[in-house]
Structures are given as structure tokens and as C-alpha cells.
Amino acid sequence: MDGIPIHFYLGVSALLFFLGLVTILARRNLVYILLGVELILNAASLNFVTFSRYGGNLDGQIVSIFVIILAAAEAAVALAIVLNIYNVFKNVDVDTPSELKN
Amino acid sequence: MDSFSLSQFGAFDLALMLVILLLPLLSFVILIFVGRKLPRQGDWLATMNLSICLGLALLLFAKMLVHEEAPELAFRSAAVAGVDAAGNGVIEDYNPIWVDVIGFVVKPGILFDNLTAIMLVVVTLISTLVHFFSIGYMHGDPRYSRYFAYLGLFTFSMIGLILSDNLLLLYVFWELVGVSSFLLIGFWFEKPSAASACVKAFITNRVGDFGFFIGIAILFTSFGVLGYHELFSALSADPTAGGTLSAGLLTAAGVLLFMGAVGKSAQMPLHIWLPDAMEGPTPVSALIHAATMVAAGVYLVGRLFVVFTPEALLVIALIGALTAIFAAFLGIVMHDIKKVLAYSTISQLGYMIAAIGVGAVTAGLFHLMTHAFFKALLFLGSGSVIYGMHHHQDMREMGGLRKKMPITFACMFIATLAISGVPLLSGFLSKDAILAGALFQWMVPGSGGPAWLYALPFVLLLMAAGVTSFYMFRLIFLTFFGETKSEHADHAHESPKVMTVPLIVLAVLAIGSGGLGLTSHLGIGTHWFNDHVAAPTLDVNEPNGAFLNTRSTELVLTEDEEHAEHSSHTIAMICSLLVAGTGIFLACCFYLWRKLSAAKVAAVLAPVHRTLENKYYFDNLFVGVLSKKVIVGGLNRFLWWFDATIIDGIVNLTARITRVLAAIQGLFDKIVVDGLVNLVGLVTIVWGFFAQRLQTGRIQTYLMMFLIGFVGLAAAFFLIG
Amino acid sequence: MENAMDLSPLLTALWVLPIVGMAIVLMMPSRASEAIKTVAAFFTGIPLVIAVVLYFMFDRAAEGFQESMTVAFKWIEQFNIEYYIGVDGISMPLVLLTQLLMFVAVFASWNIDKGVKGYFAMLLLLTAGITGVFVSLDFFLFYVFWELMLLPMYFLIGIWGGPRREYAAIKFFLYTLAGSILMLIVLIAVYLSAGTFRIPELLAMGQAGQFAEGPSLFGLPFDKWMFVFLFIGFAVKVPLFPFHTWLPDAHVEAPTAISVVLAGILLKLGGYGLIRFNFQMLPDAAKWLCGVGEGSIPLIQWLAVISILYGAFVAMAQTDFKKMVAYSSVSHMGYVILGLAALNNLGFNGAAFQMFTHGLSSAALFLMVGVVYDRAHHRDINGFGGLALKMPVYTGLSAVALFAGLGLPGLANFVSEVMCLLGGYQAEHTRYFAIAAAAGVVFTAGYILWALQRVFYGKLNEKYQTMPDVNGREIFTLVPFIALVILLGIMPGWVLDWMKVSLDGVARLFS
């Protein structure tokens, strides 16, 4: 484990982040966007854990656990909204709920 | 209060004078407020008050007659309060204060001397007789009590005028007699002619009063006093008033003061109001416009004689003489009996004024008194005729009234003899004295102008004497002789006793009042008037008094002059007798024997006749042109137009300009100021129009921009930083 | 007087009571018109009684402002503005005149039936404003009251006036406002220069020539600018030719009572201001415009004489009775200015007394016109005739009023006119002007008697066969003025004695 330099972890994390970002930017489906958000969260978590490991204290680990819990809660709420949107609009496209526009 | 004594004047006499002054005012006040509710509408009250006044005036006059001491006793309303250490009487001033500001203190006081005494008697006597006469004449008038109230107001003012001891107070009463004259001329105001006559009278008088006031202002400014005595003593101490008064200015003051007399005494050219004033009830004409008020001007000029310079006196003499002759001519052509008497009055007033102008002050004032009696008699007589004729006054409708109204005729005839100058009647004596004075002035001319001007008064007055007797006998013949010429004349009747008794009293006075002043060379009568009603004189040092008139400064005559004075009386008497006789004779030829025809003479002298009928065009000039055209029609309208169009026009123009400017400002506000504000809005709108494109509401877009921004910033950071 | 009672609360009450009355009137229901009128009468009547009391408590021998009636409180401390009131011999008679006129004005307005509540509220406010002007000893307070008085006047003419009321009201308002703006400029300038608004102090400074040292503008010294500005401001009010044209319009359109107040007091505010500020505060500048001394201009006497003669001639041209009386005011107020221009004792006394007497006589004249207007509903002088036959009492009262107008001796106006003219003649710089003004007396007689002849004399106009004579209320309004005009004609001392000591102080500035 010690043999793996830090920028490998960070590279994976950056990759995850960009995958998530691209997913959010490119996809219209709310579920995919949620997936993108999860990817970004995980990228952040990976960073925390990495810096925790190399930094010498456990703060990053704790934050990462918080993030996982938070992501779970967020996913639950977001999926509920998605379901509601689906019930009303019969699809989960991000552009469809435009009632507040103009 | 000390008691009444015949030998001394004191507070008691003062009280009497105040009673005489205030009783008529009392009747005015009572009658004006409750007159209608009194029994007989209060005529008895007014008449009683006046009779009391007459009694008191006679009492005072009697005292003056027997008074042995100084011929001119004057005192203000003051009384001797005690004796000071040096033994001089201390006079305590009891005068009430009327106006008292620093530099201007007016204390009304009473001046009582022989002239005052005789004037008081004349005024109260004629007023009383007129009151009695009016009871008959005004009987049944709807405003009967008001008439007596006005008479009371007039009498009060006239008595005040006589008793005043200073110029301003004189002016006050002067105006008050004017206003009571106004009220009485306009008594029958529903007649338009009466309504305009009273206004004309008042305004004409005001023109004279304007000069009078300026005259007072000149004297007051120079000497700082208003009382006659203070004024005279200041004048004798230093006629130049410390250099502020020049001969020219004093002459101006004299002429201006005289202007007041010209107005009030109806001298040319301000005489035009008096004939019109005949619109008033006839007793009023007798009292005010013949006997008393119009004589106030003469009284004024006589009272202030010492103030006049030789130049001013010459002006006075000439105006008086011209008035005497020109008014006398007008008397010939009038048909209205009262108009004849009116012009006769003007003419006789001219006599008095001229008398004072030539220095014969005593003669002028004497004529004032005698004229008051016989002219009042003539007017009341004509009133009786008019009353008998049922208020018709045209002499062409009369004739033959001698038999129907014998008492009236007899009385009027006596008055006519008196005014014509028939010997031994009062008018003869006074007129003769005036002519003598005028002749003396011709013989010994004064220094006021070229000598030939001093000849004029005598010549003119002598002619006027002839004309006077002519028109007066014309009046008598037309009215009382010949055939009756109208129904009214047929039914004429003698007036009641209340009217004829005053006539008889006046007739007696017209004969006898001359007795007060017969001149010594006739050897009968008393000298009272000559000795005791002289012109006031000044005690002046020669160098100071350079420009005062000699009559009031020195009484010493040279031997030649004394001779001239003596012979002037004889010559004047002979001349006047001749002239008056000629006048009477001619009148007989024309109107009694009908040997000559007045109409033919009139036809031959048509232009003259026309001029006379138009009263020398004075009325046309003053009323028709000056008053109606120049002032009312021209100046007033022009100024009113000026006010409404130019001045108000400027004001309205300013307003309009302001409104136009406001409109322009409004436009500026709308276009420029509001434009800027709107521009800001517009820019914002345009900007927003573009900016709203960015606002898609799509999270991904924002995220994308955020990303681009981040990358850009990061790139910038790495590249620059 | 030692230990004199402090009378200043009474003086304050003079203007506070009408305000209280106004408040009460405003709280009353507008239907209770009789009650409103009674309240108005009460709240002008009490000040009248107080004014009479003050008049007789007045110490006639004391020069300057009466100590017992003076009071000062701080009001706006930052600017040294105080509530500072008091009276002297010049203002005391005018205060009394104000109270009398306002009291009578209430009765003269008894037949107002439109907007009764507003009318009487305005009338009471007007009373307060006018009284305040006369009693103010603080220049700022003076200005406040001066403006306070304008407002009700504007509404009284503009709402309760005749057919052209709005034009007249606006004209009046703008004219006066133009004048007061000039006054405002002086007010500010004086404060910046002197640092105080206290009138007695300002007078002392002005008399010491302090304002002459102020900055000069366009080559004209500071005090002369002040004089000119104030003069125009007050001349509008007087009104002096050529600032007079608001007067006929305002008079003709205003209801009777308001005309009475206008002619009776409002014009006197101008004269009062002239004496108080122009002549008493700036004697050197006054000499300059009265033609005394080197480089001076005889402007004031020119304007006075033009006003006198011009007013008389224009009055003669009028066919509207009220307009004639209005122009007669222009003419008569000219005598006031002539008296002032004489710069001597007689002139100042005459001018101040003329203000008082004209207040009485013009009030009577307007009431007189009001009586006939109420009956005939027109004011055409030529449209009457012979009224003396049907209305003897009215004719008698009118005759006295008219004769007072033409200055008949025995009536108060004579005394004041004679004093103005004699004073004018006495002073060399106004001598010939006084002569010309005396000629005005003839024309005055002309228009007044001519009007009298056309209205009262002659044949009775058939239309007015049944015209009733004056009623009790009308007699009640006319009689005080007629009685005072006669009383003061015989005993002018009843006013002159109050004024002469103070006016002697003014005259001494010029001797």
C-alpha cells in the first residue's frame, strides 16, 4: 500500500469526478444526473480518504463516512422527487418540469 | 362763574356764546333722530332754539354798543384767573384741545369783537325770521322736520364760522356751511335739476377751498400759528417770518385765501353755482344764498385784511368790481324771479369784495349787513310770491300782483328802493360808502399795480349801480304791475301771517339798519359801525412792513389825501344818485310806461343778448367742456382705460408670459429631463433583452458556464500568475 | 409705571383666541350654521374686549414698545428665532381697529349660506394672522403671520367671491406673494448681517447706520437695497400706483365682509410695514427715496401724488359702485404715503391717523355698498336713483360715510387728511406734491358726490319701489364706524394721543 504514490489515488478521484460531471452535463435523464452526482460525491470521498491516509489523522475518514450517509439520504430524497416528477409528467426528463419558467 | 355784567366780558359771556353756538346743533340732532315723532314735526323746537339764540345775540350786541372801552375787544375762550406779581392779569387758557401733536396744536377758541357781534345778530336774526317764514312756506312737505334739522345744522355752522378764532377752525365751519348748503339745495332731491345743482355747488366751492387751504398752509408753514391774533402779531413783528416769506409768496397766500372767498361768495369765475342753487327752497335761498353763507367770503377777506399785500388787494378789488358789473348785466335778461335775485346777489357780493379790495373794509362789512337784510327781504318776498303763485317762478306769468299781495308788494318795494340806492335807506348808505372808497382809491392809488387799474373799480361799480336799479325795478314792474298774465297770477293770494310778519320785520330793518353807520358828514345816526367795525391794523415798523398794504399799517393821511377822502364822499354820492336815477327811469320807460320795447333792443343787440342769455358761456366752459368733456369724458376715461389696459395689461401680460414660459419648461421637462430618465430605463430594457438569453433555467447550462469560467480562470491563473 | 401688571398674555390671547375659535368651528357639524356664526362672533368679540382693555391700559407717555405688554420666548434656538411680541403707539390703534373690524365682519357675513363652516374658520384664521402681524416683534414671526394671513384670504375670495373670484383670488395671491418674496430676501439678508430677528434691535442697528455698511450690489449700498425690496413688498399691500391693480379686482369679487377687512385692515398692514421697517429701520435710505439730501430721488412722493390723483380720476370713471370705492382706497392711501414722505412729525401723525380713519370710513363704505347689493343684486351706479326716498336711514348713514370719504370737517378723515397735507406742505421736498394732492380733494368730492347724486338723488327708479330700508343687523354693522368717524372727528386725540409719542421718535430720526 505504501508503494502506491498519492497521485494514483488522486488521478482515479479526478477521473471519477470528470465522469460524474460529464454525466450531469450530458444526460437529460434525472436518474443519470443523480448517478453523476453520486460519482462526484464518491470522487470527493476518495480524496478525503487519500489525504487522511497520507496526512496522518482520521478526520478525512470521518468526513467520508458523513458523505456516504449524506449521499444515501440525498439519494432517497432525490429519488422520491424523481418518482413524483414521473407520476406527474410521465417521464423523468430534466427539461420537462418547466412550469415556473417565465 | 362770575355773573353777567354789562361793563365786563367774562366767562359768563363765553357761556352765552357757546349756548348760541350749540342750540342750533341741538335742534339738528333732535330733529334728525326723532323729528317725525314730535308734535308738528318739531318746527317749534327749531324756531324756539333760534329765537333764544337771537335774544342772546342781541344781548351781547347791546353790551358791545354800550361798551366804552377799546373798539375791538377780543378774547379767546379764556378768563382772567388772577393777578401776577407785576400786576398783570394772568390769562388762563381754558381752550379745549382739538388736535395736539408736536408742531401742530389746534385749540378751538372764540374770537368775539364788534364784527362778530354784528354778524351774530345778522345771522341769528335772519335765521329766526327764515324759520318762521318756513313754517308757512314748507307746510305739508313730506320731509318737513328734516328741513328744520338742516336749517339748524346750517345755523350752527355759520355761527361757528363767525365765532372761530383761528384759520383752521374757520375752514372747518367753512366746509360745514358748504355741506349744509349742499343738503338744502338738494332738499328736493327727486328733482334732477336740484340733485345736480347741489353737487355743482359743493364741487365749485371745493375748487375755491383748495386755494383757501393752500393759503392756510403757506401762512401756517411760515408763522407756525393758526389763530388770527397770533398770526397778526407774528406778521407785525416780522412779516418775512424770518426770511421764509417773500412779498411774492405773501401775495400768493393772499390770493389763494381769497380764492376760498371767490368760491363761497360766488365771485367770477366761480360764481356759476349760485344761480343753480336757487333749486333749493326759497327761504333757504334767502338765508344761505343771499344773506349769510355767501357773505362768509366777504367776512373772511375783511377779517384777514392785514394779510393781503397791495397786489393781492388789487386782484381782490378788480375781481369784485368785474363780478359786480357782469352779474348785474345778467340780472337784466333773466325771467325766473329767483334767478334775477341770484345774479343780483352775486353782483352785490362783488360790491363788498371790491370794497375790501380798495381798502374800504368798514364800508364792505357795512354793506354786508344792510345787504343781508334787504336781500333776505327780497328773497322771502319772492318766496311769498312763489307761494302765492303755487310754485311758479317765471316773471312772464306774473304781473298785477300788487293788489293781490299788498304786504308782499310793499315790503319788496322797500327792499328794491334800498338795493337801488334811494337816499336814506340802508342800501344807499352802504353803497355810497363803497363808491366813495373806490373813488378815493382812484384819487390816491395804491402801490399794487399801474394807476389806471385803480380807476377801474370805481367806474365799474358805478355802472353796476345803474344796472342794479334798472333790473330791480324791472323785476318789480313785471311782477306787481300791469295785467295778470296767467291763471296762477289770477288766483294768487296773500301769504299767511307767519310769512308776512318776517317780511315786515325785515322791511323795517332794510330802512333803519343804516342808522348804525351813517357817515358823519350827513350828521345823523350813530358812528358805531365806522368807529367800531374797522379793519384790523398792525403795529409795524416801516422797514419790516415793506410789503404789507398801507391801509393796515398806517392810518395817517397827508393833507391832500384827507381832502381827497372828503371830496370823494360828495362826488360819489352825486354820481350814484344820478346813475341810480337813470336806471330807475329807464326801467319805467321799458316796463311801466312801455314807451320802449325790450324785445327790440334785444334784437338790435342780438350778439350781446345771446351772450347774456348764455351767461357769458361760463357754464358751458366749466360744466360742459371742462367738467363733462375734459375730466369726466376725457381724463377719467383715459386713465381708466390706461389702468385696465396698460397697467393691468402689464400685469396680465406678466402672467401670460409666465404661463408661456411654464409651458416651455413643461415641454423641456417632458422631453429632456423625462427623456433622460426614460433613456436609463430603455438601456436597462435592451440590456435585459440580451441578458435574458443566458437565463435558460437549465442547471446544466449554468453548470457548463461555471465550468468554462472555472477553466478560464484556472487557465488565466496559470498563464499569468 | 412701576410694578405694572404683565399684560402680554392678553396680547397673546388676541391671536390665540381666534385660533381656538377656528378649532371649535372645525369640530362643529356643518349644518349648525347659526351656532358656528355665534361661536365666530364670540371668538372675535372677546379679543375686541381685550383690545379695548389693552388700549386703555396703554401707557401713552412711553416711547417705544410697551414694557408691560412685551414678552419673549425661545422658539427655534438654532436661528435665534423667538416668540417675541409687543406693541407701541403705532401698532396699538391698528390692533384695536383689527379686532373691531373682524368682529363686525362676522356680523356682516351673517347671510353667508354656502360653506358656512369653512368660511368662518377661515375668517378666524385671518383674524389671528392679521393680529399676529401687528404684535410681532420678531421679524421671522412677523413673516410667518404675514404669510398665514394670505392663505385664508385667498380662499375667502376664491370660494365665496363673485363670478370672477378665481381670477381675483389668484391675482391677489400672486401680487402679495411677489411682495413677500422680496421681504423674505430681506429677512434672510438681515439675519445674515445682524444675526438676530428681534425688531427693536434691528431698528437700533438700522438707525445707527449699521446696514449701510453691508455689501453693496451694483453700486447700491446694502441698506438701500433692503429699503427698495421692503418698499415694493409693502407698496403692493398699500397699494401704491402702479402696484394697485389687484385691489379693484379683489374688492369687487370678494364678499362684503371680506372687502371690509381688505380695505379696512389689509391695506394698513402695508402702511404699518412701511413705517416700522422702511422709515423706522432705514431712515437714511428713506431720505434717499424721499428726495432729501444729495443724490436722492423724490420717488415716494411722486408715487403718492400719482396714487391720489390717479385713484380719484379712475374712481370717477367707474360705474361699478364697489369698484369706485376700491379706487377711492387707492386715492386715500396715497395721503398716507404723502404724509410719510414728508418725514416730519405732522406728516407721520397724519399718515398713521389716516390709516386708522380710512380703516373706519372705507369699512363703512363697503358695508354700505353691500347693503344695496344684497337688495338689488347689482352694483351699477347708474342703475339706481332716488333711493333716498325709500331708504332714508340708509341714506343718512351712507351720506356720513361718503362725506367722511371726501374729508368733511367734523369727521375723522378731515383731521388726518389735513395733517398729511399740512405736513407735506411744511416739508420743502414735498411742498409742491402737497399742493397737487390738495387738488385731489376737489376730484374726490367730484366722484363721491356724483355717485351720491346718481344713487340716492333724482327720481326713484321704479324697480326699487318696494326696497326695504336697512335692517337691524345692517345698522348694527354700520353704526360703530359712523359713530367712531364722528367721534374721532371731534376728538381725534383719542387716537392721536396714543400714537404721537412713538411717532415723534420716528420723526426725530429725520430732523
Q: What do these coordinates show?
A:
The complex is a heterotrimer of chains A (102), B (721) and C (511). Chain A is mainly alpha-helical. Chain A has helices at 6-26, 30-55, 59-89. Chain A has a single domain, classed as Orthogonal Bundle (Helix Hairpins). The longest helix of chain B has 74 residues, at 618-691. In chain B, helix 11 packs parallel to helix 13 (337-357), helix 12 (310-333) runs parallel beside helix 18 (451-480) and helix 13 runs antiparallel to helix 18 (451-480). Chain B has helices at residues 11-34, 43-66, 114-137, 144-163, 167-185, 192-223, 228-237, 247-264, 273-276, 282-291, 296-303, 310-333, 337-357, 361-388, 401-404, 406-420, 426-443, 451-480, 487-490, 497-512, 528-532, 550-553, 559-592, 598-604, 606-613, 618-691, 699-720; strands at 78-83, 89-93, 99-101, 104-106. In chain B, the strands form two sheets. In chain B, strands 1-2 form a two-stranded antiparallel ribbon. Chain B has a two-stranded antiparallel ribbon with strand order 3-4. With 721 residues, chain B is mainly alpha-helical. With 511 residues, chain C is an all-alpha fold. Chain C has a domain at 298-506. Chain C has 20 helices and two strands. Chain C has a two-stranded antiparallel sheet. In chain C, a hairpin with a 4-residue loop joins strand 1 and strand 2. The longest helix of chain C has 32 residues, at 345-376. The radius of gyration of chain C is 22 Å and the shape is globular. Chains in contact: A-B, B-C. Chains B and C meet through strand 3, helix 5, helix 6 and helix 26 of B and helix 6, helix 12, helix 14, helix 17 and helix 18 of C.
What's the short version?
The complex is a heterotrimer of chains A (102), B (721) and C (511). Chain B has 721 residues and is mainly alpha-helical. Chain B contains 27 helices and 4 strands.
Q: What would the keywords be for this entry?
A:
heterotrimer, B: 721 residues, mainly alpha, two-stranded antiparallel sheet, two-stranded antiparallel ribbon, 2% strand, elongated, C: 511 residues, 2 strands, globular
| Through-space gap between termini of chain C | 29 Å
Beta-strand percentage range of chain A:
under 5%
Number of helices of chain C: 20
Shape of chain C: globular
Q: Quaternary arrangement of the chains shown?
A: heterotrimer
Total number of strands of chain A: 0
- Per CATH, the architecture of chain A is Orthogonal Bundle
String of helices and strands of chain C? HHEEHHHHHHHHHHHHHHHHHH
- Round the Cα radius of gyration of chain C to an integer and report it: 22 Å
CATH topology name of chain A: Helix Hairpins
Helix percentage range of chain C: over 70%
Number of helices of chain A: 3
Order of strands, main sheet of chain C, comes to 1-2
- The overall average pLDDT of chain C, rounded, is 86
Q: Can you summarize the main beta sheet of chain C? A: 2 strands, antiparallel
